[in-house]
Amino acid sequence: MQVLGIDIGGTGIKSAIVDVETGHLVTERFRIDTPKPATPKAVAEVIKEIKDHFNWTDDIGCAFPSVIVEGKAKYSANLDPAWKGQQVDDIFSEYCDDTHFEIINDADAAGLAEMKFGAGRHKSGVVLVLTLGTGIGSGLFYDGTLIPNFELGRMFGKDGDVIEKYAADSARKREELDYDEWGERLDFFFKHIERICSPDFIIIGGGASKKIHKFRHKLTFKTPYTASEKLNNAGIIGAAISASEHHK
Ligand code: BGC
Q1: Atom 1, ligand 1: which residue's CA is nearest?
Q2: Which pLDDT does position 160 carry in this prediction?
């Protein structure tokens, strides 16, 4: 079965058709910059452009950077504040000729892809998939089952602000941190995590997964970890898996 997967991020909206039996992309990736401001209307127009680009008429899986409960965004996260409380699936359907959309938190989607086809394939117990990008996303799995909307990036950090403001890849860029400085911040964050949920294994994903070698020497926490295998495609693949699982 093939499904169109879309991953909405703070900087780019990425998409491809995915073979959900193998986890492979069957088309080139198609990426459009996230509109600024990323209002519901502006993002929905990009989603329509993607649907048209692939000439796609079936269900669509969509990874969204906020807590998602039954298709609704609980927060606006790193998009426009107008997203808070919006029924994301209905908004996209309206712009896309009533196509059915399955919406899932972006880190949960990345986690599904890793657990099924990537670095989490043979892992049981408590596995945590973290995505380090504009925000920090976290997907938590117990024996392969997703515990949705686990928001570790929203814990409070050193200065009382959410920890993703201190440790996300966007903080590295914004504050022009070198990799040693950023690695130390990540280590602080990971040690927090160990205390909170004692994971058996951690998978580091998002844009940073390609750069682990640059800060690995600063990571002193004890939990075994590895880089994501599906890298920047994990959100697209997981979104497609999620839609295929809910296909009617
Ligand atoms: C949001 C998460 C999301 C993460 C990565 C955070 O700001 O709260 O829901 O998974 O960013 O996009």
Answers
A1: 66
A2: 86
